[in-house]
Amino acid sequence: MKHLLIGAALGATLVTGATAQEVTLGRFFGACEDAGTDTKASVGEACIIQSIINAASEQIEGVTVETLPTDWGNYYDQLKAMYAGGTPPDVHVMHRHRIPEFAGFGALADLSGDLADAGIDTGDWAPAALEAVSYEGGIYGVPMDFHANLWHVNMELMEEAGLVEDGKPVLPSSPEELLAHAKQVREATGQHYLAADFAQFPIGVRLVLALLWQQGDNIFTEDGTATIDTEAARNAITAITQLFDAELANPQLNYADSQQAFLNGEAAILVNGTWVVDFYTAEAAKEETGLDTYYAADFPTLFGTGATWADSHMWAIPSPVKQNDPETYQAALKVLAFINDHNIDWARTGHMAVRESVLNSEEYANLPHREEYAGTAEIARDTPPSPRYGAIQDVLNRELQAIWLTGKPVDDALADAEAEVQDLLDR
Description:
By secondary structure, this protein is α/β, with parallel strands linked by helices. Helix content is 45%, strand content 15%.
């Protein structure tokens, strides 16, 4: 009898294994090898998304998911190489700003006619979320979040500098006030006022863009005219470089170093995204961390109109999967539906949810620090859509870093950036 039971169990395992449809999934967000399947307990982007993926692989009947983690910095180069080689993942994450590029050359499947049957209610998506994944009449992905730059605040340093009122940080309302606050922090604490990744990823670009948008400008127009060599751009850059010139911020910090400086208590403000709110909350609770009292604030308005850089993560399926492999396509849709169903779990990172039912829920409202940056959704901005978004961002990052790292004259950097971006827009 015992042998019969073992044989039956083995037979069931073999049948399950034979019928399970594998879905390969490409993502960034970093690695997390011990994420498990508890989507409520994981901390940080990498572990939260991996716990959702692991749970999907465990809970979706007849489907297993193999994660193909890749490096954030090289992700789109790797993804393009996989498409070119005919081996893209069955499902992959991407940013909203990349849809014109990938959908434009036919790489992404139009999901619009299949989402309802997969159990995905697009009517529950916030209007901006539906817009984020729409392109030329089709829906090319399932949105997962809105994310934006915040000002992450060390309240202890701000308190020492006299920049806290009614339990909230006092943030600057002009470039002049920004400099004055920075000097206050330096004099009171001996620490830098502001830290950010100015030397590696384009966090500095996003900071400059926010200050451009606050003046009613952008880096190019809807009709494809580059508008970078402007007085507004000079104002935005000066607001930042004045801190470098006065040694109130360090332009040589990369992403990891700027974050560590903040966590060590060596900077009052860190400019970074929504994606680190839960991580910083957890770090602030640790006795050994220099950050003790943490606050997540909306990006302040230094010029006329509130604005901060923002984007959206979404999940796409390659068009060849839909065209050539209907079984994998249906399995991939189930994975997208599972991720959509767990939008509240992903929102624990600090990202803003995309589903109205989640946004209006008590569970979402009770997430840590959520009220502190409740205004961010209303000031979220980005450049006009362009298939050249990635290349344009690279140009801006290179030229801005040349200003604050090598001393390139601002006029030269802006003129060079405008000429190169115009060339990209004209292609």
